[in-house]
UniProtKB/TrEMBL annotation, chains A, B:
Main location: cytoplasm
UniProt-recorded name of the protein: Proline--tRNA ligase
Lineage of origin: Bacteria, Pseudomonadati, Pseudomonadota, Gammaproteobacteria, Pseudomonadales
Annotated source species: Marinobacter salarius
Assembly behavior: Homodimer.
Gene: proS
Job description of the protein: Catalyzes the attachment of proline to tRNA(Pro) in a two-step reaction: proline is first activated by ATP to form Pro-AMP and then transferred to the acceptor end of tRNA(Pro). As ProRS can inadvertently accommodate and process non-cognate amino acids such as alanine and cysteine, to avoid such errors it has two additional distinct editing activities against alanine. One activity is designated as 'pretransfer' editing and involves the tRNA(Pro)-independent hydrolysis of activated Ala-AMP.
Aminoacyl-transfer RNA synthetases class-II family profile domain span: 38-470
Location in or out of the cell: Cytoplasm
The keyword Transferase belongs to this UniProt entry's keyword annotation: no
Length: 577, 577
């Protein structure tokens, strides 16, 4: 491509409303432009990257045996009513009416449509397993779209859905998809981690997220220092402290703690560490058979935080997790939230594993402005129910017994999920099994945020000059910059010749033949992030050399004009392919 | 691809609600499935065709110098309000509200979005001309979606928009796009015609439609027998009859024609040909400066039909064309519509070119139940205004003076259009010209109905067994059918070997390794329309031969096993590439 005939829409200024690096750089490098909140146009330079990501995803999905389809973006409400999601799905579902007043939505995902297709199309276990995918524009009406294409409303997703006659077959395809996702993210040159994710709400038996590691990531992910263990913070198990609980050494005593309403305040007031204070949270319980919903107390160590997903997944806790109101607490306990504790509490108590190891601890006295000190489990208060209730913290032991946990920030770019029969059951999607009996299909679903990957890659690959694309998804692999080519026919001719030579060798080449100052051209090529750069100049031609600089290189180097192609081949990852 | 691991979703029955061949065959061959009215899922087999069409369109657009972009499908109302189309566009525009209640639409076209993008991005004539295109899912809420993907609500379109500092530059790019479209439709193997189209309503200076010729086409297109002249019926000029009008030979006389209200009835009643009767139509005139809208009479030969576009394009006729009501006719003329005529009519009269050549003709007497015979222009009624008002008919002389006109049915698959400054003026899209002055951009737009092309190709390429794809867009170029391969390891091995050989030579191959009867496999491959078919059988292997049959061939032929690849290469159009 000749830059003189191409939209090089670079900008010097960092856009004021772009918070994260990838958003800033995609705007500055002329990759995207905002149309409206959460809606972006892809300019030619950005679209080249997006298409290369798509191609890698497509090639690996095809290799896995998945079959590409394309379903409509606009979906009829009837199918969503059948699955129950028309009511359940919140404001993110963009609903609309057609000219006849019928209800439709702009699909954020396609479980219903594919399940409808497959229940009509497949009749026998012999046609299974089958895995169908599409690469398609989706819409989620995010309450607060942000970070450019990272969390846009309209975005491109690869979504796949697999169908099985039993759970073993689902498991096999799930493993294939896990490996396929690793192959995709490897080829994309991303530093990523597959992590265990919670699958409780949908009732499936397994779920993994694929996270790109980046400080701007919106998710916390957890690794072991010494093993492959990795999970997102919602899922990561906090194991019980080793050994037995120590024996009590203090007597329980009541102390006045006027106006001390938080753990921090109480700990400071009583001069103890927060880890020696018990945090008591009252939440709504599941309704009983009479439709009555009481409260449940959750006890955590004062320095730990409640993991809402873990709490919500407990059968006796109401879902979604709902904190008791101030009125309910007053009514049930007789004091404010800051003074409650497990001793003599009249509601069921569930104690976190770490909290269950506390000795001689402090807790609220269930009496306004008073706490108890020297409290001990069993002696002062029963310990009937211990569960994992908290978020892990750095340094916790890894659940697999190997090493300790580290916490990093991640950007979710993929998610694989065993759906089980959630949709197939609701929508009556069955086939005949080996015995000629009707079997409800088992399903898996597998998503990749295609447009988000473009931004994620930039979060991991940039410097103060701009983007540093991996060769595999760079808009152009190599730039040829002609210096003053408009004044020097020999420079332009040498640039053109090199351009044709590299193109014919299969490289994506941008010939920067613009009538611009050298500094402007260099800055643009660096901002755009092209991995390899050749400079053609009169000085160089005299010596029959070109200047080369890799985007990550500190220094330039002169190479013989005749060696350009072999040099590029050796400098490019294609060399190893 | 192995058929045993692929969704071969063929059906024997012709679907009852599919009216045209392409819709029937796309369903029967397992290319598409209906989700809801005008919404179709593309199954793997159909998507392969769609992607090949896309690729050809993309390659030729790239070659033309156009740059690919991708704009959001969801568009904010504000831009459409700026262009004035938010109000003008009818029920086809799918409008919706986001969670904050803001107005959006699902884009049926992207003039507003691209004009907004370009007015912000381009500043100088030096950056022009520029042509941007996308291949994207569009939505038009058709009142009556029909014919499958031929007239669907959600469809895939290639839309391009070019920007220019003056009309000459627009003209150059328009010519490039005309040539590019011909290259695209040539490569797609379509029998098509570029035809002149009317561009009056948008005010542009030129417009061409590209029609695929097919009896199921919804449009009438017109050609010359002896030249390149082609136009759609709206645009095709009806030239004035050759020579001067003959002299009158009859006296004008009034005759009673009781209850004879149509041209046919009057002609029969008076025993004259319809071509000797004048048809008089009263339509609304443009409002005058006082806001008063009167009537205008349009006179046609009785055997001709009014061309509404031509009438509407006349400056003194109201747009859109509106027929006078019975009440208005009674009030102005004093009789019913069946008895009106130009003689002594009190409203302005515009006479069609052919009608102006009538001699001794019949027309209404402007008196209920009466007509005049022997009427002659000039002698009996003034002939002040002659225009081209009618649709051409077969046998009319071609407007370029060469040959006569033929009329065929066409499916519109492309449209190129000089928009001029319609959008750029409304949206204030300017650049600085060579003199440093602000110049409103000239624009062109260029559409191709990508998904419609798939159906159009089938309309032209099928027989009673199924589809006959051109090699360039066939889902697979060649099928290898193994006969009883599940029983014969040598047949399966030979099939696999041939499969790998042809694949490695670059062919798209479908290995039909299914455990099905030979007849089922042959019928499926023919229905799906794969251009080349090899059969591997035990009998053949004994003789070291394969059976070959081209999809259009009458007969099979045996070819030596070792010759399969060279034979295929010579049989395939790639041979000539």
């Amino acid at each position: 491509m000749r830059a003189s005939r191409y939209l090089i829409a670079t900008q010097k200024e960092t856009p004021a409303d772009a918070e994260i690096i990838s958003h800033q750089m995609m705007l500055r490098a002329g990759m995207i432009r905002k149309l409206a909140s959460g809606l972006y146009s892809w300019l030619p330079m950005g679209l080249r990257v997006l298409r290369k990501v798509e191609r890698i995803v497509r090639e690996e999905m095809d290799k896995s045996g998945a079959q590409e389809v394309l379903m409509p973006a606009v979906q009829p409400a009837e199918l969503w009513q059948e699955s129950g999601r028309w009511e359940q799905y919140g404001g993110e579902l963009l609903r609309m009416n057609d000219r006849h007043g019928r209800d439709f939505c702009f699909g954020p995902t396609h479980e219903e449509v594919i399940t409808d297709l497959i229940r009509n199309e497949l009749k026998s276990y012999k046609e299974l397993p089958a895995n169908f995918y599409q690469i398609q524009t989706k819409f989620r009406d995010e309450r607060r779209p942000r970070f450019g294409v990272m969390r846009a409303r309209e975005f491109i997703m690869k979504d796949a859905y697999s169908f099985h006659v039993n759970a073993e077959s689902l498991n096999d395809t799930y493993q294939v998809m896990h490996r396929t996702y690793c192959a995709i993210f490897d080829r994309l040159g991303l530093d990523y981690r597959p992590v265990e994710a919670d699958s409780g709400a949908i009732g499936g038996s397994a779920s993994h997220e694929f996270h790109v590691l980046a400080s701007s990531g919106e998710d916390a992910i957890v690794f072991s220092t010494d093993s492959d263990y990795a999970a997102n913070i919602e899922k990561a198990e906090a194991v019980a402290p080793a050994g037995d609980r120590s024996s009590p050494s203090e007597e329980m005593a009541e102390v006045a703690t006027p106006e001390q309403r938080t753990i921090e305040a109480v700990a400071t007031f009583l001069n103890v560490d927060a880890s020696r204070c018990a945090k008591t949270l009252l939440v709504k319980a599941e309704e009983d058979d009479n439709g009555h919903s009481g409260l449940i107390a959750l006890i955590l160590r004062g320095d730990h935080t409640l993991n809402e997903i873990k709490a919500e997944n407990l059968p006796d806790v109401a879902e979604p997790l709902t904190m008791a109101t101030d009125e309910e607490i007053e009514q049930v306990v007789g004091c404010k939230a800051g003074s409650i504790g497990p001793v003599n509490l009249t509601v069921p108590v569930i104690v976190d594993r770490s909290a269950a190891h506390m000795v001689d601890f402090v807790c609220g006295a269930n009496k306004e402005g008073h706490h108890l000190t020297g409290v001990n489990w069993e002696r002062d208060v029963a310990l009937s129910r211990v569960e994992d209730l908290r978020d892990v913290v750095e340094g916790d032991p890894s659940p697999d017994g190997k090493g300790t946990l580290e916490i990093r920030r991640g950007i979710e770019v993929g998610h694989i999920f065993k759906l089980g029969n959630k949709y197939s059951k609701a929508m009556n999607a069955t086939v005949l099994d080996e015995n000629g009996k009707s079997a409800t299909l088992e399903m898996g679903c597998y998503g990749i945020g295609v447009s988000r990957i473009v931004a994620s890659s930039i979060e991991q690959n940039h410097d103060d000059k701009g983007i540093i694309w991996p060769d595999a998804i760079a808009p152009f692999e190599v730039a040829i910059v002609t210096l003053n080519g408009h004044k020097s026919p020999s420079v332009m001719a040498a640039g053109e010749k090199l351009y044709e030579q590299l193109r014919q060798a299969g490289f994506d080449v941008l010939l920067d033949d613009r009538n611009e100052r050298p500094g402007v051209k260099f800055a643009d090529m660096e901002l755009i992030g092209i991995p390899h750069r050749f400079v053609v100049s009169e000085r160089g031609l005299t010596a029959e050399t070109l200047e080369y600089k890799g985007r990550r290189d500190e220094d330039k180097q002169d190479i013989p004009l005749a060696e350009a192609l072999p040099f590029l081949i050796s400098a490019s990852p294609r060399n190893g392919l």
